[in-house]
Amino acid sequence: MAFVAVAVGWTLAPEGGDGDSSAVVEASAIDPSDLRRASPGTTSTGGPDASPSPVVSLSPSPVPATATTQAPPPPTTAAPPPPAPRTALGAAGSDRPAGGGGGRVPGGMSGVYANSMATVRSWEALRGSPVNVVLTFADRGSWETITHPWVGGSPEKFSTFPGTWVISQPFYPTGQGSLAACASGAYNSHWAEFGRWLVSKGRPATIVRLAWEFNGNWFEWSVRGNPSAYASCFRQVVSAVRSTDPQARFDWAMNAHSTSPWEAYPGDEYVDIIGIDTYDQWPASTNPAEFDKQCGKPVGLCSAIRFARDHGKQFSVPEWGLVGRSDTEAGRAGQAGGDNPVYIQKMYETLRANADVLAYETYFNDSRAGNVHSSLVSPNENPNSAGVYASLW
């Protein structure tokens, strides 16, 4: 039976990175019943860790460093020449950022994490405006489910969705690969097949969110002190997909407030969009000043936007949302914002202020037990915030 890809949020304490105890969290998993069960473990440094498994994997978050609003340093990982002849990008008068696969996406696309059109319809009803992008997760269980994802399998699974697909993809199936092998090009034939699949589906300009949240310690593709291997693997995958689908667009998506991601940057020729997942926790943005403070941290949303601008890229926020004060670790630690309209308002203001370089944003709407409890509809766990969201979007 084919698994349905599911993204889930998971509230874990900081694992070290960005300045103070600020830590964000979330996760993704594959689960046929649309549920996730997992338990945080402990890292070698004593902090919580979410280890991937064949069925699920978690995404915790941040690691503080120093509270600063300085822009992130330039990446030190140099990218090799592009793998194949490509149209010159980033030239004067061009609307394509240097290295872009399919060029810039329509500015400011807005949507939601979804496994079916039912979620899309509920989200559109909540806010009274159309959804033109959906965040999805491929099943990471095998090469077959990675190279031929469930997305687009029927009208209810987005085959006729008029907007853009975002597919979150690992480097290799869970427990069936390594960064070293990927970096050597061992999996390129699989990724070339994925490119062919995108073209066959009539979706060549799909956004691929490749090996996301790599600066945390909960996925197999975590940089874990080896950013060069991650960057090399990323370049291999991008090159292989582009060999059969030159229009595919790649989102390099970090986790807010986790360890520094900048040395793992694959290079402008291999990245179309700078992404960041961020949630209202570790610390909660209970007032505008607190939001601005965490946003400007070295691995905060505002710093990611600056990095995108510096590199001539668009940015994305593939996962963002509230975090409940009960049934979450951040809530138990007093670090979750709960039903927090301030956070919704400030996210809107930040996205709007940077609309000229915004590729897309997708809210992570989820109410599952032990998850982030960010849900604004079906069910509405955060009525005050839902009202503000509906009025703004």
UniProtKB/TrEMBL annotation:
Keyword Hydrolase: yes
Stretches the record annotates as Disordered: 12-105
Active-site residues per Swiss-Prot or TrEMBL entry: E213 (proton donor), E319 (nucleophile)
GO BP annotation list: substituted mannan metabolic process
Keywords of the record: Glycosidase, Hydrolase
Biased composition (Low complexity): 50-70
Ranges of Pro residues composition bias in the record: 71-85
InterPro entries to which the protein is assigned, alphabetical: GH, GH26_dom, Glyco_hydro_26
Pfam families in UniProt: Glyco_hydro_26 (PF02156)
Residue span(s) of domain GH26: 58-373
MF annotations from Gene Ontology: mannan endo-1,4-beta-mannosidase activity
Similarity annotation: Belongs to the glycosyl hydrolase 26 family.
Designated name of the protein: Beta-mannanase
